[in-house]
Amino acid sequence: MIRLSTLLAVGVLTAACAGAPPESRVDIGDVAPTPAPAVGRGAAAGSYTVDCGREGHRNSDNLVASPGVRDGAHHLHDYVGNESTDAFSTNASLAAAPTSCRDGDASTYYWPVLRLGGHHDSPRTPDSVRITFLGSPVSEVVGMPRFLRTVTGDAKAGPGARATWTCAGFDDRRTTSYPRCPSGSRTLRVFDFPSCWDGRSTDSPDHKAHLRFPSADGSCPHGSFPVPRLRIEVGYDLAPDALFSIDSFPEVADRASASDHAHFVNVRTDKAMDEVVTCVNQGRVC
Description:
Layout: H1 4-17, E1 25-27, E2 47-50, E3 58-59, E4 77-81, H2 91-96, E5 108-112, E6 114-116, E7 123-124, E8 128-134, E9 149-153, E10 164-167, E11 178-180, E12 187-192, E13 196-197, E14 211-212, E15 225-226, E16 229-236, E17 244-246, E18 261-265, H3 270-281
Parallel strand pairs: 1-11
Antiparallel strand pairs: 2-8, 3-4, 4-5, 5-18, 6-7, 6-17, 8-16, 9-18, 10-12, 12-16, 13-14, 13-15
């Protein structure tokens, strides 16, 4: 005879391993468009795109949030850019490592893997990764310091949740829920990073206080300075009825989409960062 406790345990395990339930997903056509901030005179309206490929290495470390702790992320990360990043990376080791970025950018970019079907299924390799540095709608930007560390989103789906989802062709419609995209429309995870630097620090205890988000009109808080705004778009060609979820901390219910997050360590040289700043301040597309 199978005990009730066994059935309950199996039920719990099945729920934990399942992809995001259909009721947690939204049709992208039902998401209201979000207007972009108005671009004023003196704005930095350019963009600089970095091609770092779509497939790098993977591990369950987190150099930014849990340095020196093996498997400190408690979930699996996808990396592009710096090919050596792990929990024990240092500024020196990152600067000396090879990179997948075509322009020689040795920065590290990483986020939780996406799995089809459930937590224990194989990770899905992205079909596209687009890394872009943008300007500011209200002023020119200054260079971010080398070895700056930062994060966007909240891995516990708490008040810092910010990562958004959309579908190709619906870029002005953003949702924190898993989206249901029309057939042929690529599912996109969009990570917008904070871009108002305190002018002093490359990190802070919460990995956020030194680099804050601008206000809705694009202006930075008093005492901070606009730096190039990093945006990472990670895309997957999925069927409209595909069940998928991101890796997350085990305690995050249903692998909540709002727990999505990404990290960045800037390893560009000062000269290479100057190229980014000049491009966006001059309004060019590079």
